[in-house]
Amino acid sequence: MKRTGLCLAVLITAGVSLLALAAPSATVQNVAPESLLPQTAVIALHFDGDAAHRPAIEQTAAWKALEQTGMRARVFDLIETFIATQRSDVASVVRSALEGVMENGLSLAASASADGNSFAPYGMMVVHNGAEHLPALVNFVVESDPRIRSSIQERTVDGRSIQFVAPGPPGVEVAWWIEGQHAVLAGGMQPVEQIMACAKGDVANVVQNPLWSELRRSDGFTVNLLGWIDTERLLNQFGDLPFPEPPKSGPISIREFVDLFGLVELQNATIQGGYHETEMWNRVQVRRSGPAKGLLKLLEQRPVQLDEIPPLPPNTDNVFVSSFDIRDAVDIGLEILNRAVALGAGGGPDEFAKDFEEFQQTIGGHPREVFSAGLGDLFCVYNDPTSLPIPIGIGPVMVASVEERETVRGSIVRLLDLAKKLPDAQKLQVRETEKDGSTYFSLIISGSPIVPTILLNDDWVVASLMPGAAQNFAARLNESLPRWEAGADVQAAIRELPSEFSSISISDPAPGYRSMMMWAPMAVGMLETQILPKISRRDSQPQLPFGIQDLPSPEQLTEPMFPNVTITRNRDNGIEILSRQSVPSTPLGNVGAAAIVPVLVALLLPAVQAAREAARRTQSKNHLKQIGLAMHNYHDVYRHFPQGTVANPDLKPEQRLNWAVELLPFLEQQALYSAINRNSAWDGPQNKVVADTAVPVFQNPSQRRPADNPGSMDYVGIAGIGPNAAELPIEDQRAGIFGFDRSTRIRDITDGTSNTLMVSDAVSPNRSFMQGGSMSIRGFSQQPYVNGPDGIGSPHAGGFQAVLADGSVRFISAEVDPKVLEALATMHGGERVGDF
């Protein structure tokens, strides 16, 4: 196991450092990188590098905007500086290697075997002309972990000096060497021998693959990037093998599993990239070998006409329009679910039918009717940069076509009513108003600076972050505001692209890059004064190798840019995505991306965090429900609830196993339960490994836990009232359901199961779900009871969740009367339980 982990570390470090582990060899004859890749590659990627197409690439807008202005050099400066915060002696070497890949290229491949007949899977990476960067990186990697040096072996194959580590069965290894001027890293079963067979011509190389021949050429642009995933070959080679995790209904093949999603007809997915004059081009194709069904069917939508585009703001810099049959999508999704359930996924057909019925009751109808009824099949997302009160350059707006207005209105009302039932829904108010023939739904969220708005009229339904965007849309409909029209650059792009498409994306990268450069001086200052000093492991703080004046001005950077246009179109055997770009999009898109960081995050983070916390709280509630159900199933079998700690007179309660261990067989964790030594301490030698196993149902998703504490538990049993509540005899009026040596029956709970706490959230996680004693059983002894000294509480705002003895889960406010909590904590105290 140690050798396997060590070799994986070698492989990862080598890949990140571009074949860091390598040694010079006597081989001097240069070879074409593609001659090392097998014809049988099921996954392949080949990048020529800039040097191979220098005249073409220097004509592109991307080269003029990013290279000639020095922008790409500044990005590499940042990468080098961040690496230098950890290891200054390797930063420049890594930068040189990265620049070498950009200049000279890279090739990747994976195959079941080079000859296509045997089963000997392997993968490889070739760094073109990468040998010169390796000696310094070798020293860095070896010095960072002496174990690597002791694990490296060496042998000679066909005159090449091969270094390798062998982590597993015979023939399985990770190896690296220099082939001509290229550096090669390979891993798998006999990878060296299989690559050498390609190099010598004993087996066909990737050039003989029809996909290579097809993708190497293009009528529209000079190709410098190509790749594919050959799913048909994968299924032909592995489709009849059993799926690794068979469903409850019995073993199925990989082909049958893939067919669940309608992907068995997927032939391949390919990519091409390149240049033509000032433009960058990309082509992605997804091809099938049979009829479209399942997820493949969703890819092929009806053609869209430009005059179908809804009225857009004239200053929008980003728009996406697509047809999409949402009814078909719902039907296909349900079909996939039903087929999976028929194979035994989840709880089986009966449980799925019950859950689906509850889901329909929750949302107010069948998903097809709730989510799609009355809607058309045209959808649009665009940016209205003037719609937010702070001019940050972003204002996303979503639009869908409408076929039946009243039906859509009913769906909106049902969904908003559902939203009001979510946690913290008391902070949400919905106001419905009519204006100029349109209906507006305004969502007022207490404490939020945004007012999400839905507009509905006879033709469109619009959703925006602020009412201004919806009002602007309505004004453009009645022509009281100007509309967007395709400019000369966009029209030129559309003329070069196919005239028929099912989706189109038009984005102007200039505003995003311009905003990024406007914020750059502030970002550089924060890097130097706040970020670099905190992350550096060196005594001296690394300095950025450039000043603010070395950054290109916003106008320098954006002057060569023009709008990017991407279309998707149907082909006879699949779909094709064509993209004509001036420069790549900014990391967060083309809608004032840089401004999002300092401003939009401040606006939206509270709402996003609230939504995430609501989801986590709901998931935690489900965990408590499962624990409550397991408690009752245990009671049905043993006629009492689990004892607070597993009985063991030779151990103190703090050493014993926790009550949660007894629930494992009732939570589909029988294998884990069988691995536990019930006669040993929870952290005894045999139990230690199990104690560090994460059991998701015992963990609150909102709880933070250290990385070295994976098996912790976030819920505690309620012992009653007082510091010694867990030690009280069962007849004591202060006793709760759990005690170190108590076994409680339902008939012992004379206060009523719906009025008695059984398990609750804890303020912080314990060491392990197996840990007994006061870490897993707690009583109320000191006020404040919620999030106080007893550790009963939660990371949730406003209170905690608990499962009652009847199995129901309640959210208990932090402001609850302490007397009410005391009444809930006891099982036969005779107290009156008030509101909670």
Which properties best describe this structure?
25 helices; 20-stranded antiparallel β-sheet; 836 residues; alpha+beta; single chain
Short description:
This protein has 836 residues and is an alpha+beta fold. 34% of the residues lie in helices and 20% in strands. Helix 4 (71-84) runs antiparallel to helix 5 (88-104) and helix 5 (88-104) crosses helix 6 (134-144).
Walk me through this protein's architecture:
- A hairpin with a 4-residue loop joins strand 24 (799-804) and strand 25 (809-813).
- 34% of the residues lie in helices and 20% in strands.
- It has 25 helices and 25 strands.
- The strands form 2 sheets. The protein has a 20-stranded antiparallel beta sheet, with helices on both faces. It has a 5-stranded mixed beta sheet with strand order 23-21-22-24-25, with helices on both faces.
- The chain has 836 residues and is of the alpha+beta class.
What are the segments in which pLDDT stays under 50 over at least 5 consecutive residues? Answer: 1-28, 586-611
Largest sheet: 20 strands, antiparallel
The N- and C-terminal alpha carbons lie at a distance of: 53 Å
Give the tally of β-strands.
Answer: 25
Q: Label the structural class.
A: alpha+beta
Q: Helix content range of the residues, please?
A: 25-40%
Strand content: 15-25%
**Tally of individual helices:** 25
Mean pLDDT: 84
Q: What is the molecular shape?
A: globular
Question: If you compute it from the alpha carbons, what radius of gyration comes out, rounded to the nearest whole angstrom?
Answer: 32 Å
